[in-house]
């Protein structure tokens, strides 16, 4: 072997550049494996084999055939390496070009693309004027591999492979990614310490890297506290990079898949609790969810959209992968049978509902026990609420502010009035319920003319720290509610004060009557002391404690204190009875009444005369009163 042979020189230079190059100096040949890791993940479409003749059919041909198939589009970042074998003939490079042969494991690269890449070696040898081109050719292959061999520029727009190759290619991609990641060193986005890849985890959707210890501590605590919304990437800027569209932002803000939590080393019991809470949240936000009418149960009815979590969590996580991907967009390979079954259920309008907790079968229309398909029923009156439900709704109405987007009740325990909805992540003002810009929510409190200007820290201690009845200053729907409560409270206070004033007026009237009687007694003492003493006795006997009812006290004060006299006899009494309107005259037969009735009539007459005297005494006109009007034939008014 001549030392000045250009083949030896080129193979030696190539071996120095690529240490992994395997060289056979005796036969002037070399073998090199080139990694295929496209800069942009290569889209690979896996379709079933549709040609029965053995010829390879593309996706376009499959569409023309119109056969039934289920396809899957997968973006692969790593593909099996490209194996290059080079043989340098004796006349290389002056008279003959190098012989190259390209192969791939698993036969993922089409044979036509391989022959095209092999022909590039001869084109380069011709273009460079029959010079050494091995390094240039290897560099050309590496650049083509970074572009994904321009397979996205094909008629199909992607690489089309049979579905049988999916398992091996996906497994190779995952293994290569993991090996590459474990070999690197990364700064944790939480503790900011450098960690080896084996101690870190890369988020599947966004690619942010955190150490496993930080992730486990945070997500375990979030699951324990029931914070489902916090189960997402911990990078504050995740999904908010400039240039991201709204659809991408919504996708990156979705909660983590349970498979990722298991890959982080989270215990299966914790992951199961997370899945249960996630399902419960979906049931509560779905307006079509039917709840058990039993007050001690209140469980959801069985639903095909949200099936119970099975005991085999791994199988459930595998099935949930397709459902999570279809939250915002429909996957290309989603079977149509699910949507068809759902439409059929809607058309059938089945009224039967079965509680998944207590297995009660009830009607979803009237919420009574199941009565069959042919019984007529009516929707339940929403006003028919139990005592517990009314108390719950009343507390929510009085102590929470609704989210302006999803109307979820929110209560503040402490802090400022910038709120973020736990359900839909909407930023809003706790005082007036106005929607706030998430990028700059505090401009609402700094804008003059706003109802919440300079009121960011009002109600800092929260609703529970407020004294009932204080002016809270809410605006919006809750402000009107608070205003109505204040008006009702003031009306009740005015009514109570009016009742107290009425009682005071009755007391003052009674006091005025007492003063009038005292004045009358003073006047009587001037001209008739015996009668004055009797009236004073009436006044003293009529005084009662203030605790008694005023009307009853007045009746006792006005009662005649003199003892009842026996019915009078004689001519004078007969004349009086004859002159009365109810007496018999003109020789008619006198109808005698019982003695008790006669005494009562006499008392009433004496009481009327006494009241008349009191009225004259109040007007200083007692001189016109004739004391003979108080008949003393029987000696009842004689003071002994």
From TrEMBL:
SMART domains: IBR (SM00647), RWD (SM00591)
Biased composition (Low complexity): 543-553
Key words of the record: Metal-binding, Repeat, Transferase, Ubl conjugation pathway, Zinc, Zinc-finger
One Pfam family per UniProt: IBR_1
Sequence ranges of Acidic residues compositional bias: 502-512, 619-634
Enzyme Commission number: 2.3.2.31
Highest rank taxon of the organism: Eukaryota
GO process terms (BP): protein ubiquitination
Family note: Belongs to the RBR family. RNF14 subfamily.
Protein name in the entry: RBR-type E3 ubiquitin transferase
Source organism of this protein record: Friedmanniomyces endolithicus
